[in-house]
Amino acid sequence: MDLLRTLCHLAAPAGNEAPMTEFLLNYIRQQQDSWQVQPRVLAGEQFQDCIILVFGTPRTAVFAHIDSIGFTVRYGRQLVRIGGPRAETGYRLVGQDAQGEIDCTLLVDEETGELSYEFSRDIERGTELTFRCDFRETADTVQSCYLDNRLGVWNALRLAETLENGIIAFSCWEEHGGGSVAYLAKYIYEQYGVRQALISDITWVTEGVRAGAGVAISLRDSLIPRRSYIERIRAIARAAGIPHQLEVEGSGGSDAKELQHGAQPWDWCFIGAPEDHVHSPNELVAKVDIDSMLTLYQVLLREL
Amino acid sequence: MDLLRTLCHLAAPAGNEAPMTEFLLNYIRQQQDSWQVQPRVLAGEQFQDCIILVFGTPRTAVFAHIDSIGFTVRYGRQLVRIGGPRAETGYRLVGQDAQGEIDCTLLVDEETGELSYEFSRDIERGTELTFRCDFRETADTVQSCYLDNRLGVWNALRLAETLENGIIAFSCWEEHGGGSVAYLAKYIYEQYGVRQALISDITWVTEGVRAGAGVAISLRDSLIPRRSYIERIRAIARAAGIPHQLEVEGSGGSDAKELQHGAQPWDWCFIGAPEDHVHSPNELVAKVDIDSMLTLYQVLLREL
Amino acid sequence: MDLLRTLCHLAAPAGNEAPMTEFLLNYIRQQQDSWQVQPRVLAGEQFQDCIILVFGTPRTAVFAHIDSIGFTVRYGRQLVRIGGPRAETGYRLVGQDAQGEIDCTLLVDEETGELSYEFSRDIERGTELTFRCDFRETADTVQSCYLDNRLGVWNALRLAETLENGIIAFSCWEEHGGGSVAYLAKYIYEQYGVRQALISDITWVTEGVRAGAGVAISLRDSLIPRRSYIERIRAIARAAGIPHQLEVEGSGGSDAKELQHGAQPWDWCFIGAPEDHVHSPNELVAKVDIDSMLTLYQVLLREL
C-alpha cells in the first residue's frame, strides 16, 4: 500500500491537479516496462491535466478521477468549499502560498455554518487548502483522507500491470462539477470506437452496502445507466465468483454524469469499494473490498 | 386507439427502454409498406435503444421520448423514484424479477414521504416497477398511465404514415435527466444538416392551458427557445386554422434541454396536447387535442 | 460612452437577441475600416443570433454575451422571470405586442413573491418585457440597467479597434441557462485550434471586491478554472502594472460554464469590472474599473 499512501499525501484539489498528473506520468514512465503490455500514453495541453493510457485493442475504458475535495481561501479568514468536503472544527488543513507552508485549523461557525481558518498569519486570497493526510493501515483496513479517489487511481494503476486490451483515463474536476470527461469521452469514442465505460471510484457504506462484503456494483445513483449493460456486468461478476454487492441509490454522481450527458452513446457502470466517513479526513475502506474491486476490473476488462 | 393502448401497456422505464425499442422496430417493419414514403431506419448499438427514421430530404426533426417514469427497488422494501412519478398509497405497481411476476401496492409514509411497497414476498434489489396500466377510453377522452409520452410516440407514428420529408427520433432517458438526445442531435445535424426540432411530448393542463382547447405550443418552460423560430411556427398554425393554445411556464423541461445545451445550433419548440393528473396512473387527455396535435405536426413538417 | 448608452437602450432578452445582433452587425460593418485589423465576420443561421469575429491568427477567444434578463407575460397579468432580475414594485418595464408599445409597472406580491404588472390594458401572452433604460453618467461612474453585459459587449467592441490576433464571440442565452457557447466553442476549437478563453462580463461588488479598485480577475465562482491558466493571467496583469482585484466566490456563473462542460479542453478566466445593484435597473460601475478592464484585455490578447 506504499503507492496508495503516496497518492493520498499528494495535494491535487479540483482545478489544480497538475502535481498529481506529474507524479502519474513519472510513475508510468518508471513502471511500464514491467507491465504486460506497454500502453500508448496521451497527455499534454490537448488533455489539460488528464492522462489517457491505451493498451492493445481497447473495447472498454476505465475512468479514475485524480482530483480531490478541499477549500479555497476567500476574503478575510473565510473559506469556500472545493467539492463537498465534510467540515468539522479542528480538522487540520495544509497548503502553500507565497509566504510559505501552511498548516492551519478549520473552524465551523455553529450558527451560520460559515467556514474559516485559524492560523498564525493571514493566508493569501485564492490559496487552496486540503486535508492534512494521516494515513492509517491495519491488517484489514486503510484509513486516510482522499481514499476517494486515490483508491480508484490505485486500482487503475494496478489494473495496468496486467492489462492487455483497454483504456485507462485519469480525469479532473470530478469533485467540483466535472469538466474533463466530456472531451476525454469524445476523443476515446472518435479515435478508438470505445463506448463501454467503468467508473473506478469509491462509494458509500450504507444500510444496503456494508464494509467487507465486496466491491459495489452500482445499479443507479442520481442517474440510471442502461440496464442491458449492467446486466452483462452482473453476469460476468457472478460467473467469476467475485464477492460483490448491488448498490441502489437515488442521489450521488460520478464521472458517469458526463458520459451520460455527452454526445456519444456511452454505456457506463460505477464499480467501487464502499467507504465509511465519506469526504472526511478519516475515510475508511476494508482491504477485502479493495481486493475484489481490482479482481473484478481485471475480469471485466478481459470479458466485456 | 389500439396502438396507443398497446404502447401504454408496455413497461419501459428510463434506462430500460429496450422492450419499447423492440416493439417499435417490429411495428415499423410491419407498417412501413403502407406509409407514403419508406424511411431509412437507423438503430443498433451506435444509438443504444434509440431509433431514427429518415424520410426523404429532411428539414425538421421530431423528437418523441419512449421512456417512462417508475420506481426502483432499493434495500428492504424501500423504493426510489425513476423520474418524477406522483406517489399515493394504493397505486398498483407491476414488474418482474428472477422469482416471477410482481403486482404490488405503493405505500407512502405520511410523515417522512418515504416510499415502499406491500407484496407477498420481497422483491429483488434493483428491480424496476411501473404503474399498472388501466387504459380507459370515452367518446371524448383517453385516460391511462404513461400518456406522457406514449401519446407523443403515437403522434410520431401516425405522422410517419404521410410524412414525405423529415426525421423522427425516438429518444431515451427523458424522464430521468436525459442522455440520448445529445448524440441523436449531433448525428442528425452532422449527417443531414437538420437543426429545426419539434418536441412531440405531453404538457400540463393549467390555469392558462385548458383540456379540449387545442394542442399547446409552448413559448417557454424552464428554458426559452429562440423567438424567431417560435414566431414562424405560430404563423403557420394560425394560417392553417388549427386550434391551438399558447403556453408560458417558468418551470418544466423536455428533450429540448439537450438540444439547447448541445454543441449544435438547434432551434426547437415543444408542441403537445395538455393532460390532467400528470405523472399519475390516471393521466387524462381530450381527443380533440390529440387531433389538433397530429394535424399541426403534419402541416409543420410540410411548411417549416 | 455613447456606444454604451445605445447598447443599454436596446431590448434583447435571452431568446430574442436578434435586435442586438442586427445592431452589432451594422456597427461592425460601419466601424471595421477604422480598426487596425479587419476581422472575418461569421454570422447567420449556423450561429443563430451569435457573431464571431476572427482577427489575424488567434490564440485566445473573448466571449461577451449579448442577451439580458427580463420578464415574460404569462396568464392573466402574471409575469415569469427571464434569468434572475431583481424585482421591486414600481420598476418600469417596457416592451411591445401586436397592440403597440408597452410602458408598464412591475408589482411584487409581498406575501407570495408573485410577479405581475399594472398597465392600461392586458398584454399579450408571451410578450417579453425589459427594464426601461435610464442611463446616468457622472465624471466617475455609469449607471443603467443592463450594464451586465452591455459593458462586456462594449469592452469587446473597443478591444476590436486595436486587436491584431484573437477571436471575439458574441453569445446568447447566458442569463437563462445558456445554449450558444457550446457550439461556438466547438466551432472555434475545431476551426482555429483556440482553447484559451476570457469571459468579458460584469461581476459583483462584494466585501472583497470594491468599486474603483480595478477590474476583477475571478479565481473561481461556482466553477473552478484550471489553476495554471489563471496564474499566467495574474503574472501578465502584475507585470503590466494594471490595477486589478482577485475575486473568490462559491456561487455565480457565466458563459464559462459551457466552456468547462463542453467537449473541448478550454482554459477560461472571468475578467470583468464589478458593479453594484446587480440585475436591477440601477446597475452602477466605476469608470476607472472599465478603463482597467479594457487595458487588461488589450495586454492579455497580445501576451497570452
Automatic annotation (TrEMBL), chains A, B, C:
Q: Which InterPro entries does this chain map to?
A: Peptidase_M42, Peptidase_M42_aminopept
Alphabetical UniProt keywords: Aminopeptidase, Hydrolase, Metal-binding, Protease
Query: By its UniProt entry, which Pfam families does this protein fall under?
Result: Peptidase_M42
Keyword Membrane among UniProt keywords: no
Q: Record's superkingdom?
A: Bacteria
Which GO molecular function entries does the Swiss-Prot or TrEMBL record give?
aminopeptidase activity; metal ion binding
Query: What is this protein's name?
Result: Putative aminopeptidase FrvX
Q: Which organism is it from?
A: Hymenobacter daecheongensis DSM 21074
The major lineage groups are: Bacteria, Pseudomonadati, Bacteroidota, Cytophagia, Cytophagales
